[in-house]
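Ticket #4471: structure export looks truncated?
Reporter: QA, pipeline team
Priority: medium

Steps to reproduce: submit the single chain below to the structure queue and open the exported record.
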Amino acid sequence: QVQLVESGGGLVQAGGSLRVSCAASGLTFSSSALAWFRQAPGKEREFVSRISWSGANTYSADSVRGRFTISRDNAKNTVYLQMNSLKPEDTAVYYCAASRRRYYMPTADRYDYDYWGQGTQVTVSS
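Actual output as written to the record:
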């Protein structure tokens, strides 16, 4: 059974930084690409960033590029999202996601992902 467990969310002031983590189990982690999505109240879930199984390839949405960095530690089965220069519009529940297909780089479409965590709340105050 695949489990993705996010942690590290919280309240931060605008301009501040936060790092969220996602610990995976039941997944062949080192051959699985992972991604972060977010969902603000009343809005659709949107793609944030994704990383390949090796960590060599990453891609981020325009809205966060240059401020957020996705990384992974295959020895710890954990993926991270370092968020800098946070803005109030970054306030959302952040979700970790993975595809069941090995050595496959999913798109930014949420329907391309099979497994989801429960989410962690990130709130940025102005």
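Status: closed, not a bug. The export was complete when the record was re-opened. Leaving a note from the reviewer for reference: Residues 31 and 123 are 32 Å apart (CA to CA).
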